[in-house]
Design brief:
By secondary structure, the chain is α/β, with parallel strands linked by helices. It is built from nine helices and four strands. The chain is globular, with a radius of gyration of 18 Å.
Length: 183
C-alpha cells in the first residue's frame, strides 16, 4: 500500500496473519495503524519497522499490542526471523532494544512496590485502567467493553479504593503517569 490509510483496507478485507508497517507512513502512521487494528479487534498481528529506538515510541507501540518491533538498521538480518516468530505466535523485538524491555519491566516492578494494590486489581479493572490511560471516557469504555457506564464507574471506584487514590482526577493522572507500566 502507498500509505497507512490505504493499508487498512486490504488488512480488513483479507485478515492476514501478520501486517508489516513502517512507523512513518503518510495519512495514517504506524501508531494510528496499530490502534486501528487493535480497535477493530482483528486477529492480525502487527509488526513495526522503524528507525526510532526511542523509549516513548517503543512503549507506545507495546501499549498498542504490536507483536513485533524491528529497527530498520537491523532489518536485513532480523526481518525474516521476526515475521516467522510473530506468525508462530511469539513476540519479537530487535535484540538491540533489550535494555528498553528490561527498563519497562523494572518500571512495572517499581509500580508494584509503590502501589501494592495494583496486584489486587481484577482483569476487568486492569483492562479499564489501561483504557483510562488511553484517554477513554467511561462512556467510551462501556461501549468498547459492552457493559453499562455504571459498571465502568463501579470499577473505577474499586480501582481508586485498591490504589488509595483520592480526588476528582487522581485516577486519570495515575493512569496517564503510569501508562507504560500497566500490563
Amino acid at each position: 500500500a502507498g500509505d497507512g490509510a490505504e493499508a487498512l483496507e486490504p488488512v480488513r478485507q483479507f485478515n492476514p496473519d501478520v501486517a508489516l508497517v513502517d512507523i512513518d507512513m503518510p495519512r495514517c502512521d504506524g501508531l494510528q495503524f496499530a490502534a486501528a487494528i487493535r480497535d477493530s479487534k482483528l486477529a492480525v498481528k502487527v509488526v513495526v519497522l522503524t528507525a526510532h529506538p526511542q523509549k516513548e515510541m517503543f512503549d507506545a507501540f507495546l501499549d498498542l499490542g504490536v507483536a513485533g518491533y524491528v529497527l530498520k538498521e537491523n532489518a536485513s538480518s532480523e526481518l525474516i526471523a521476526c515475521l516467522k516468530a510473530v506468525a508462530a505466535g511469539d513476540p519479537y523485538v530487535s535484540p538491540s532494544l533489550t535494555r528498553l524491555l528490561l527498563r519497562r519491566r523494572q518500571a512495572a516492578d517499581q509500580l508494584r512496590s509503590e502501589r501494592p494494590g495494583i496486584d489486587r486489581l481484577t482483569p476487568a479493572e486492569r483492562r479499564i485502567l489501561r483504557l483510562i490511560a488511553d484517554d477513554k471516557t467511561s462512556k467510551e469504555i462501556a461501549s468498547h467493553l459492552g457493559v453499562s457506564p455504571n459498571t465502568v464507574d463501579n470499577h473505577r471506584a474499586n480501582i481508586c479504593e485498591k490504589l488509595g487514590l483520592r480526588g476528582t482526577h487522581s485516577l486519570l493522572k495515575f493512569a496517564f503517569d503510569n501508562k507504560s507500566k500497566l500490563n
